[in-house]
Amino acid sequence: MVWSRTILDGILLCLIFNLTVAVTWIFVPCAFSKMLPKEIRLAAPPRKKKEVVILASVLYPLYILIFAYMIVSAHLAGVTGFWNLFWTGYIEMLFINLGDFFGLDWWYRGAIKDKIMIPGTERCKAWETKEWMKTLAIPEHLIGWPFVVCPLVGFIVAGLSTWIY
After folding, report:
1. What is the DSSP secondary structure assignment for residue 122, as one 8-state letter?
2. 102: exposed, middle or buried (C-beta count within 10 Å: 0-12, 13-18, 19+)?
3. Secondary structure class of 107 (helix, strand, coil)
4. Rounded to an integer, what distance in angstroms lies between the CA atom of residue 61 and that of residue 120?
């Protein structure tokens, strides 16, 4: 594993992922209603098909490009062996996770809450930082991502890399 490359790739992927999500969240806040705390999900109006299509057309290509970048970058850096590739993918996804936690969930949501608030959810306590972190961000980013998402990405990157190269 090439630590400097892994860290720089992790930072780059973190920026790309989180900036893309942030911009999408501003323009189509209702599309994210199913990803928000339960109180907000229940208070939010049903998502329109157009919102779901926009979110899917942003997120799916983004994930595919992130996986492709991780695989090609690891190959170009000379990373070989299943476990080295696994840990490279895991650590790079962990950077994305930390950027999402600190950047989107803590800072960004708090800074522009009025612009991303879904109509009908204004009175939800879950928009407050403490409640948001307790009900969504901490369980998702300190349990779900490190123990489920990051290992899954690591296995996908390692598996595809060893299969392709």
Report:
1. T
2. middle
3. helix
4. 30
Q: Which amino acid type is present at position 30? A: C
CA 16 from chain centre, in angstroms, equals 10
Percent of the chain with pLDDT over 90: 98
**Amino acid residing at 136:** L
**pLDDT on residue 1:** 87
Q: How far is CA 61 from CA 20, 57, 67, 93, in A?
A: 11, 7, 10, 16
Look up residue 151 and give its two tokens: 């290992």
Q: 47, 30 in Cβ contact below 8 A?
A: yes
What is the pLDDT of the chain when averaged over all its residues?
96
What residue type is 108 in one-letter code? Y
Collect all residues with Cβ–Cβ distance below 8 Å to 88 and sequence separation of at least 6: 1, 2, 6, 70, 74, 79, 154, 157
- Dihedral of alpha carbons 44, 50, 51, 55, sign: positive
